[in-house]
Amino acid sequence: MQTRPLIGITMGDPASIGPEIAAKALNNPEMYELCRPILFGDSRVMARAFETTGVRLDLHPVASPAEGKYRHGTIDLVDIQLVDMNSLKWGEVQAPAGAASFAYIKRAIELAREGAIDAVTTGPINKEALRAADIDFIGHTEMFGAFTGSHDPLTMFETRGLRIFFLTRHVALAEAIRMITRERVLDYIRRCTAALRQLGLERPKLAVAGLNPHGGEHGLFGDEEVREIEPAIQAAQAEGYDVSGPYPADSVFWHAAQGRFDAVLSLYHDQGHIAAKMYDFERTVSITLGLPFLRSSVDHGTAFDIAGTGKASSVSLEEAIRVAAKYASAFRRAG
């Protein structure tokens, strides 16, 4: 059973639903059949989450993954106690909570870089809390890129076999359109294909989404397809890549979900997010590729409005752990 991959799970913002969904997810025995999960967080916060969720598990603080028990009924925990429990409030933006969530992530990255864990699965963090704590990162991807020295990591969504990459992420839509260049699209085709091979797909078929309605109708309304995207695809095909498009964005994701393509390169944030989340909101998982190790994540926020109520679903976190466990071995072999 020691061949099960070792997955580091960050608790997320301690004032959010993160601790509660971690408790619920690790109360599911299936997680321990798939992998050896180790949580990065605060034992006092987890004890409070047990009260709100009704989960009854033992906490086993460890200094390193080698000390873990990895059996259902016990949460192995890298215990990082940074918050004042007397002042920590559920569902509010707080600087200490932002600082703590950052510390959990940083420690998990350190151990993943050392090879002590096989992959990292992250819980939800709050950008305002990070800013309040003077943490100069807008999100997880930027942190993982900076701490691993990885330039422009790739984001891929997966939900029920549908895979979506993103050419641009957290920028204004006008800026995203300016970033759609022949050079960038060609670079992403190359890197997305390489990433799919890392995940175990030997001959991946990639589709590129169009930007304008109906793909611009050959320049009738919008020329980005003709001017930037099509030349990039043609150049990639000449290099031997199995890529095609651009396809109208209102249909390409459906075709990928039916198995026609292994993945779609979405051109901007909401284009791919809407497709994935409409397909299956709870089971949409975010995967960061282009790092020295695999990172998966829930694709929902901190849900401060229900934090502390015990109502939050752990389905997305469980799915993120499943995806990390599924791909960890292939990713490790490819590395």
Q: Just give the CATH class of the largest domain.
A: Alpha Beta
CATH architecture of the largest domain: 3-Layer(aba) Sandwich
- Helix and strand content put the structural class at alpha/beta
Structurally, the number of domains stands at: 2
Helix-strand blueprint:
Elements: E1 6-10, H1 18-25, H2 29-34, E2 36-41, H3 43-53, E3 58-62, E4 74-79, H4 95-114, E5 119-122, H5 127-132, H6 140-148, E6 154-159, E7 162-166, H7 173-178, H8 182-198, E8 206-209, H9 224-238, E9 243-247, H10 252-257, E10 263-266, H11 269-280, E11 285-289, E12 294-298, H12 315-334
Parallel strand pairs: 1-2, 1-5, 2-4, 3-4, 5-12, 7-10, 8-9, 8-10
Antiparallel strand pairs: 6-7, 6-11, 11-12
Helix pairs in contact: 1-3, 4-6, 8-9
